[in-house]
Amino acid sequence: MARPKASPEQRAEVRRSIQQAAVALYRAEGMGGVSARAVAKKAGVSVGTIYAYFGDLSGLGQSLWEPQIAVLEDELRAVAAAHPDPLARIEALLHAYLTFGIEQAELYRNALLFVRPSTLETPDKQPLSAFAFPTLLSAAIEQGQAAGAIVDGDVAVLVQIIWSGVHGTLALPVNMDRLDLQTARSIREPISAALMRTLLTPG
User: Phi/psi of residue 74, each to 5°?
Assistant: First the structure.
């Protein structure tokens, strides 16, 4: 006789238990302790259940931070909507992104500074259009180029340059904490100004 199909509430509870197990292992042992077998054992499920619910370990890891990142994305959309001028919009987006990374440092570290161990599967590539920050930057850069205020060039490349700048501002003091570097908070404004200058048309 076939096993009764799990209800949405039961599926949600299984999903939560797997996520809680992964978080507990991560806090206790770091990312190296988060294996499918270890998470399954702690959650009291099979390894197959983890893959059925999350696809792979990368999917499980991403799911832990999705609600908080969704809040950031909503904030970025609101910032963009409040600035019709493309240059002012980009500057405001940079400030909002850096502020989030500074004020939500632990979340940023866990969600966006994750370096995948070689033992984990490489996830499928996702389009940049799936994320608010690069999408909003792309739209502003295209508008600025059309108005002659932003340098010509491949929009995707310009977006990556700008995103690399703000991400590096937040990541470098963390990843290279043995060096006497300025804090992200102390160089937030100079970095934003420098990145804006890379976009401006000469003169």
Answer: -65, -40
